[in-house]
Amino acid sequence: MNGRRKNAPFLDKQNKSPLEEMFILVGSQAWQAWDKGKGLEWHLLCDAVKFDNGEIPVIVGESQLKEINQLNLAPLDKQIVRLCQFGELSQRQISGICANLARFSQVQTLTLCDNLGNLIEDLSPYVARLREDEQSQLLMQQANEQSDKPKNEPYIEYRDNGVLKGLYFVTPKFDKDTHELISEKQQWICDPLELVGSGKNDVGEYFYIFQWQNLDEKTPRIEAVNCGDFGTEAAWKLLKNQGLLMTPRTITQNLVEHFHAQANFAPRWSVTHCTGWHNGAYLLPNGEIIGKPSQPIIFKGKSGMTTGYDTAGTLESWRENIADKVRGNSSMMLALATAFASPLLKFLHADSFGVHLYNRSSKGKTTSLNIANSIYGNPNEIKGSWDTTQAAVTNEASARNDGFITLDELGQAKKIHEVATIAYSLFNEVGRNRGAKEGGNVNLNRWKITALSTGEKDVEGFLQSKGLQINAGQLVRLLNIPLVDVQELHGFTSPKAHADHLNEASKVNYGVVGREWIKLLTQHPERIKVEYARLNALWQNRLAEDCASQVQRVASRFAILETALTLAKELTGWTESENSEALIKSFNDWIAGFGEKEHEESKILNFFNDFLIANAETLFYQIPHSEFDNRPVKDMCGYRILEITGQSKEHFYFLNNAFSRIVSEYLEMPKMMVLETLEKLKMTRNTTPSERKTRPYLHKASRQTLEKGVAKGRYYIIYPYEEEEEENPVNENQ
User: Fold this and answer.
1) Which long-range CB contacts under 8 A does 512-515 form with residues at least 24 apart?
2) Are residues 144 and 182 in the same domain?
3) Where's the DUF927 domain (predicted)?
4) Is residue 299 part of a domain?
């Protein structure tokens, strides 16, 4: 080989006008498609793009792609080029074409199209970046110089000897005197294997990205091999396990130097173990990329449900059979909103959260999960369960970063103590810290997700029935909301018939709407923050002025849910008023169980109110005492001081030990925290400043009560709570 460049086939036949678009047919079937101007595919392309089929395009087929660095592909001053793909065309080959045109032409507009001229990708920005990047220019020059060198030493190249196609290790033999090539020894190494890129992950580990085509698959396999393993049996096994045929002989080691040399010229990729948003595109757990990343991406993580992220049906069939039949049913609309919300969290810098739908009836819970899961994939294959472990759930959350996860039937949890742990760790957004074998710690898994859970009981009630507690922080991350029975049957004869339809429809209509949803977000990311700011202001304005901060945080999460439904309205067909009405109903159902105050505050208030009502006449000695009341007071907690003319309203004297026992046994909270909360609620009062240091909240019995029979000593004074009348926290008419 010499260093002289040659023209691509028919380059001399092209129009000389710089501003007239030039066509290049590229790919493994380019020559067959043109077929000397008689090819059916060539005529179909010309008809589609209104091009004269009598003109001759530049042809870049398999043989030309192998020597792309030695070809002139376009006249030097040509400005506009369209690549029309016929057959296979790898990412590396596309990069080679771009590098060629960037260096050896003045092309400004370069597009890659399918065999009918439809746009696949605008390559113009990539060509511009190559020209601006001095390092890339240097690498292109080195690549050309390397390709032009005579092959006097053993080398590796693609060959097809009629028996085996692939990479061969070629050993040339030359005449000692004339230096002419006498013969070649060729040894097959492996199937056609391309180095399409190199890159590193978030923690700085380097990888080579390889591509090959398995005979029984339609799309090429792409795999990233850690550079630390490359050349070892571990690397070859990784490739062979995925279908690459390779010789068992030691000549495979020659691939190491071969690909090391190519790596300098390979495009840069991002390697990630995490799904979700990367480089402006979205990565699904099955490795599928939605949108156009600013840099190529490959996914090295694994979900236990990878195969479920498939598609069936169409957007129209999903809307007709699922969204239209869900309209007007608040719990089901909430379930879909939770699924739609997951990709928004990163844009809004929002924390992960979830919804737990509970109902003692078996109706609707699993159906809600199925329709929510249908947004992103096959519900039967991506649905999770509470019958799991903390490690499994957090691993799955990491594999679904910026995505959606479901946990069906709380009652199936076998390790009850792990329910609270899962509810906490799932929304903590970070995995457990573990030590690495070589020292230090393993890099932590991180994620953002929304979750949908179901059960017969709310999470707090379920744990309390097992003798466990859950803190308020978890209850504003996993929102307990009762599942409302179906209100709109949409022509079905019964709720069961309605649910049966949705369950069956979700089996044949899934995955498409989620992809359309994410495409919409990639096209208009600026709308997310604007819409959320508007809706969050509405949600906060609906709340009472003295609403607790926990309630405000949950209102913000409902604003995220409404943002999702508002932006997705062209997919669901639901109106903004329908979305708002459904979510306000769900929020009010949540607050009915949680309360408008801080959860600990509501819990303390409700406990003491219930305790005093239930036990006022059995655990407290009544003052003044009626001579007709001879009932014994068993396990006495103190005194019930009735309202006496001229004295304060009815209240209770709690014995110190009795109060401490009750708080410890039933509330499992620090006693001082309980007393401070009761003071805030005006259900008790503190002692004088001088007494607070030694006996806070413990008051001496008053003279009047001592005269009525109260034993001398100090007591906690508790008043029944008097509720002030307030409007509902969220008015549906607002």
Assistant:
1) 512/311, 512/312, 512/313, 512/314, 512/315, 512/318, 513/315, 513/318, 513/319, 513/374, 513/375, 513/571, 514/339, 514/375, 514/376, 514/377, 515/290, 515/311
2) no
3) 165-440
4) no
Same domain for 441 and 567, yes or no, is yes
Taking alpha carbons only, the member of 22, 131, 129 closest to residue 74 is: 22
* 569-to-340, 374, 563, 585 alpha-carbon distances in Å: 11, 17, 10, 19
Q: What is the CATH number of the domain that holds 453?
A: 3.40.50
Q: List Cα–Cα distances, 249 to 185, 187, 227, 573, in angstroms.
A: 15, 10, 21, 61
pLDDT digits (tens, 9 = 90+) for 140-186: 555 554 544 556 789 888 888 888 999 999 999 988 888 788 888 99
**What are the tens digits of pLDDT across the range 313-327?**
999 999 999 999 999
Describe the strand order of the beta sheet including 181-190 as a list of residue ranges: 155-160, 165-174, 181-190
Give pLDDT tens digits for 15-36.
888 889 999 999 999 999 999 9
Q: How many residues does the chain have?
A: 734
**686 — phi, psi (to 5°)?**
-85, 170
Q: Which of 101, 119, 148 is the last residue of a domain?
A: 148
Domain count, the chain: 4
In-domain check, residue 102:
yes
Q: 21 lies in which domain range?
A: 6-148
**Domain stops at, among 533, 562, 594:** 594
* pTM of the predicted structure, to 2 decimals: 0.68
